Amino acid sequence: MIDTSSPLVRPRRLRSTPAMRRLTSETRLNPAELVLPLFVREGTSEALPITSMPGVVQHGLDSVRRAVTDAASAGVGGVMLFGVPESRDAIGSGATDPDGILNAATRVVAEEVGGALVVQTDLCLDEFTDHGHCGVLDALGRVDNDATLERYREMALVQAASGSQLLGLSGMMDGQVAAVREALDGAGFIDTTVLAYSAKYASAFYGPFRDAVESTLVGDRRSYQLNPGNRREGLHEALVDIEEGADIVMVKPAGGYLDVLADVAAVSDIPVWAYQVSGEYAMVEAAAANGWIDRKRAVHESVTGIRRAGADVVLSYWAVELAGWLNRGDFA
Ligand code: PBG
Predict the structure, then answer these.
(1) Residues with Cβ within 8 Å of residue 194, at least 6 apart in sequence
(2) Which residue of the set 88, 252, 300, 307 is catalytic?
(3) Which domain does 241 fall in, by range?
(4) Catalytic residue among 41, 131, 151, 200
(5) What is the distance in A from the centroid of ligand 1 to the CA of 236?
(6) Known active-site residue 296
(7) Which stretches in the chain have pLDDT values below 50?
(8) Looking at the domain assignment, is residue 90 inside a domain?
(9) Which ligand 1 atom is the nearest neighbour of the CA of 124?
(10) Across the chain, how many H-helices and E-strands are there?
(11) ipTM
(12) Residue 15 domain-assigned?
């Protein structure tokens, strides 16, 4: 019988001093594993606040230059650029215009920090279409998968030519990884890396992002993004993308999908990333602004949880701020 007056096993030993806790920590965060998403808006040179994402802004071409320089100094691994165009049309022409805001911003950012971190771009049509869908529509108003792949191929070439080193395929069209890989290789962009947003769920937590990109979405994305209740399907999507030649797979959102993340991480032989999305950011910011939560600890803990579940890299709107804390040794 176990003598309860003196436990034989005392797990608290490993938590007894700060030095012991530091030594036995299983998950450590490093600035290099963080990627900062950035919004660049056409027609502004200075930063404009985003109401639903306090602390995040829509950049102009001047302010984004400073933001990426700060990101590079903080040691983050990369920046992911999103464009906010002034005008939109049915096929998202701005996405493939070499002078469209995303491509113009990519050239600026690549010139500024292309050697210091990985310059990444969102490859999706939703910011550029007037109906707000991630693809082009057929005569019945449905998202036309294969016609969209043609647009993604064109986008890939323009983004690569603009200096993007890593393309974030976030549209959830079937066959998008293979289509983009083939287009890139055919044009000689053999080193341009493909990040597949493999398990991207139809999530309410993208709400603030839609403000950030001034989305005009009509309807919803449930015919192409995953059903939040589906775990097996998330894994399936990742395996398909690996088969199609993805360099990196991603799960998104992160916090509510840690089981899917762990599933993918358990079988993937390529890097697994996760996107801590706008709604995850906004929830912590709102609670902190009300004094209901310790903001700094909540930020650190939320990203730690995502890393612990299996993400090698985390896209987070807190990337630079968190990197700053890590560089100072605030959580050591
Ligand atoms: C699509 C895209 C979205 C996000 C990233 N890429 C929006 C969507 O699918 O509706 C959301 C990111 C976030 O909420 O932070 N281009």
Answers:
(1) 166, 167, 169, 177, 180, 181, 184, 245, 246, 247, 248
(2) 252
(3) 29-327
(4) 200
(5) 21
(6) no
(7) none
(8) yes
(9) 16
(10) 11, 10
(11) 0.95
(12) no
